[in-house]
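How a chain folds remains the central question behind the approach discussed here. No coordinates are needed to read the tokens, only the vocabulary itself. For completeness, the protein is quoted in full, as a sequence line and a line of structure tokens:
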Amino acid sequence: MKTNFEHSLKHVLIHEGGWADHPRDPGGATMKGVTLATYRRHFGEDRGKDDLHAISDEELSKIYDSGYWSKCRCDELPAGIDYAVFDAAVNSGPGRGVKWLQAAVGAKQDGGMGPKTLAKVTEHDPLDILHYMCDHRLAFLRGLSHWPDFGKGWSRRVEKVRITAIEMARGDSQSISEITPSVDYEIVRRGSSGVWVSKLQEALKIHVDGEFGNDTEKVLIGWQREKGLEPDGIAGRVTWQALGLIA
């Protein structure tokens, strides 16, 4: 619905994380889920990484609104369903997000949010729609080749979306001020120290001292190779997701 965009965006951003610029990441520099290529497409080819890193709330809203929320006509959907479609669109593409809604309400699954789909939505219980969408979203993700590596994070995101969307549909959604982002992370490598090194060591089931030395690097490289990830010995977003520590 029209008043739910900003609230829904704050929930989406909890899962999208902060700044990431791993040299081997094919997506390149990313801030709050926005890649440099997307940022340039909206605000000019002359924009650089520093501009992306300092992206304003207004710029962020414009990108997520035009690329996902408005494209899926979420303003015309009931509370809760709008957020579930929005998050699915951000995570798996607008077309797929709409198709999951269409499947839930028995509309033609063409990926386009038209008047027939919107009319069908009003014929069903919102909670039934939300459960159906989340169940089918999880089924789709389980069928992806990287599920063994990233399934923990993906499952956690979908279940959080389910809970939050149901709260919105019931009109008792949690205040955004009470939400603690769980996906902020640090990129750590040999020489790093601190809490995120300890988290890494705990996840790898090795001695925890908060110091990223040769032994931690060796174990991490072996684990990355086993999971089919780039064995670079650096714990960045992809590694954290594969460990199930961020969504």
